[in-house]
Amino acid sequence: MMKRGLGLMLVAAVLATASDAAAQGRGGFSLPPLLMETTAFPDGGIIPAQYTGRGGNVQPGFTFRNAPEGTVSYAIIFHDIDVAFGGNTDDVLHWMAWNIPASAGGIPEGSLPEGSVVGNNLRGQANYMGPGAPAGPRYHHYVWELYALNANLDIPQTATRAELLAAMQGKVVAKSAYVGRYRPEQ
Questions:
Q1: pLDDT tens digits for 102-145?
Q2: CATH assignment at residue 61
Q3: DSSP E strands, the chain
Q4: CB of 83 within 8 A of CB of 91?
Q5: DSSP 163
Q6: Same structural domain for residues 22 and 41?
Q7: Separate counts of helices (H) and strands (E) for the chain
Q8: Across-strand partners of 118?
Q9: Quick check: pTM over 0.85?
Q10: Using an 8 Å Cβ cutoff, are 181 and 158 in contact?
Q11: Rounded CA gap, 56 and 74, in Å?
Q12: Does residue 147 share a domain with residue 106?
């Protein structure tokens, strides 16, 4: 019984030390405060037809809140995580954008703030490509990944997703995600 009590005291001491270190900025675990939200559909919900490739193909609007101090710009990568190509880990890249000014506080529906750069999607087109999952019994999961950056990125509009991710290294101050599900009507 004494060993168990000693073990519990040791665990409590470790947790208290880790919590204290995190609170004082000395490491430990802390969740980033960045929030990405839309009124178009709930997080994890069904994506309405107007935002899909089979509907209106309109890019949904999002608001960004609680970005850390020092955030200069944002980058977004929008992809279908339920598909793999050519035996690789790549999935369907539907859209990516960067240098979205932090001062904009988000992106309006159907457009981006001035100064933003839109990269090429899977089709090699610099535009939003809405969800277009094939008919079937399950929903595909589409993820909008939002990165808060402490600098703008100096990469060309033709940059690949891998080049965008490489350019963001060392500049990411927070990250958030929003998920939508889609499958065409049977």
A1: 999 999 999 999 999 999 999 999 999 999 998 889 999 999 99
A2: 3.90.280.10
A3: 35-37, 45-46, 62-65, 73-80, 92-101, 106-107, 117-118, 140-149, 172-182
A4: yes
A5: H
A6: no
A7: 2, 9
A8: 97
A9: no
A10: no
A11: 25
A12: yes
